[in-house]
Amino acid sequence: MSQTPAAANPEPLGSEAFDELEAILDELRTRDDEIPQWEFCEGAMAALICCRRAIPPQEYFPMLLGGDEGTEVFADATQRERFMALWAQRWREVAVSLEAEVESLEDDAAYQPEIMDVRGAVAVLPPAERAAFEAEHGDEPLPSFAQVWALGFMFVVENWPEEWAAPRDKDAAKWLDASLQAIVAMTEDDTGEPAISPFGDDSPPSVSVARLNAFGEAVWAVYDLYEIWRNIGPRVETIRKEATPGRNDLCYCGSGKKYKKCHGAT
Average pLDDT over the chain, rounded to whole? Predict the structure, then answer.
């Protein structure tokens, strides 16, 4: 279902490449504060790859990054080309992961969303830096683990609802609904007791056990959504046939003759 051909063994993006993507988005945000974080883009990308219809870049980039074509938001051609190259590389990587047969999310081939535990990152800051961060952001709530990723995924679902409409098959429709609900659950705040830190055992806990379990279910849901639409295929537009006039009705051409004496005679 992807728009970008998936290489057999795409070169995975490393931490430096993701830092570069974040830096580009940070620069764009100096001119448009609605530019999303990479984690949001990561979720949107997963949804686009899973989507029933292969939505072309010229259609989704304006929604994601703004602008008529979604490309004039960049500072120059060099910045645009670099972002697009990294985007395409990550797209291939995610597409190959979703095609892979994996038994566990711990498998090297499994899809591993690029997400950040913001709460944990703030908790491990040195006291002075944490105080400065809190002074700058005030009482602004910090996103929960993988919440921004899930919001990015649902952004695509909500902006192209016709591509996520329930199929006629009842079992497939239930499967679709359960999968989407698993991702919707991740858009909610983590209200559980923090018990785990992705930054190590010596770091303050920032994620509940329930949240980590829900995240695993959400990633499996991405696999399920990819499988659902791959099995069902793209939507087929219903062709509606114009009603044929009765033989004694006036002809549709406006001649004033009966249909049987006009176009119905051919």
Answer: 85
Task: For residues 23 and 77, give the distance between their C-alpha atoms in angstroms, rounded to a whole number.
Answer: 16
Low-confidence ranges of the chain (pLDDT < 70): 1-10, 67-71, 135, 137-138, 233-266
A 10 A CB-CB count for 5 gives 9
Q: What pLDDT score was predicted for residue 246?
A: 64
3-state percent helix, strand, coil for the chain, nearest multiple of 5: 55, 0, 45
DSSP class of residue 54 equals -
The string of DSSP letters for 9-52 reads SPPPP-HHHHHHHHHHHHHHHTT-TTPPPHHHHHHHHHHHHHSS
Q: What is the pLDDT of residue 112?
A: 94
Torsion of CA 107, 183, 133, 79, to 10 degrees: 70
* Overall pTM > 0.90: no
Biggest CA-to-CA distance, the chain:
91
Rounded distance, CA 51 to CA 225, Å? 8
